[in-house]
Amino acid sequence: MGEPFILRDFEVEEAEEEENREIIVYSAGEAFDPLPPVEYVVNILIQKYSTNILYGDPGLQKTYIVMTMGAAITLGDDWAGIGVQEGKVLFIDEESGEHRFKRRLREVFNGYGYTKKPANSDNFHFVTGTGINLLKPSGIGTLKQLIRRHKPDLVILDALQDVMEGGDENSSGDITRVFNALNRISKSLKTAFLVIHHTNRKGTFRGSSAIMGSVDGMYELDGNAKSGNLVIRMDKNRDGEVEEIPLKTEFGYGISGERYFKVSSRSISKPEHNDMESYLLGLYSTGRVLTLKEIEEMTIADGKSFGSAKKANQRLQRAGIVSRIDGGGKGSKAQFQLTQAVK
Fold first, then answer.
1. Per-residue confidence at 270, pLDDT binned at 50, 70, 90?
2. 273 or 138: whose pLDDT is higher?
3. Count of domains observed in the chain
């Protein structure tokens, strides 16, 4: 049975905290002092006291996947072959509802081999349908009180649009207010945030470009949910390497008939490309040189999204498959070609 608690007057609390907030001034010489190593809640992906976003198309099992991450932290188990720091998790669910969330969470723990309640499962807390609004002092205060009460190492918010009710995802002002609040909380209360978000019709993250500038980690979930072959692509990893993490997801039934969901690592022997990357490679395959304008014209003529094509072209560049050959510089028209053809 859930445990209720009483909310305080957070309008007053926020005003008092702002008035008493301490600003620390450093000197340049302190930059030469030894720095502590970067610590992670989830290795590679989520640093301690950071703010992160995972976004992807509908139906890619985003909620399930971050649940498995939370369960791994709770259990001190690897997540998809990646090490985690054992700790506590708080999940703010504004999409699934209590019944669906409990069913999914049980399937996730079943996937880790627990058909009965694990001893440390109480380190995974969740609230559902609270209506927390991070554009209001009362919403920020409620979140703070939950964090102070349960002391999580990771807070998961599902989803961005639901915790900024009345705001506009396309407004840099609204987005900045939300993520400034999360960034302050992460540092002051020593927790990390992972926010679930969605894509737009162009295939990139929905909303203002201020989102990427406001977070420490920006991760795209891509792939095919039916086959279970997914990949996390790092659009931004502030203090780490930009990498790709291939995943394999699986629904199934155990010996006792219990349904489970699990995520595992997926090794690949050669580069795999999504539909848009394969489309672009087809355009490049004859050794031709393409400008962004030509890519735009061809993708639109073929009924495809130029936004997705531009992003796929950037990924192919990062992978060393496509090279820019015009030399760059002010006024230079970007031209691209297969790296093999350049060589």
1. low
2. 138
3. 2
Question: Domain containing 310 — which CATH number?
Answer: 1.10.10.10
| 252 shares its domain with 285 | no
**Average pLDDT of the segment spanning 38-48:** 94
Q: What domain range includes position 290? A: 275-342
CB atoms within 10 A of CB 53: 25
Distance CA 230, CA 238 (A): 23
| Cα(177)–Cα(183) distance, integer angstroms | 10
Query: Do 202 and 58 fall into the same domain?
Result: yes
Burial string for 158-177 (b: 16+ CB within 10 Å, else e) reads bbbebbbeebebeeeebbeb
Cα–Cα distance measured from residue 221 to residue 270, given in angstroms and rounded to the nearest whole number: 19
- Which residues, in sequence order, are CB contacts of 334 under 8 Å at separation 6+? 291, 292, 324, 326, 328
Residue 3 located in a structural domain? no
Report residue 228 CA to chain centroid gap: 18
Q: Is residue 16 part of a domain?
A: no
Report residue 284 as tokens.
């490049």
Q: Using pLDDT thresholds of 50, 70 and 90, give the confidence band for residue 239.
A: confident
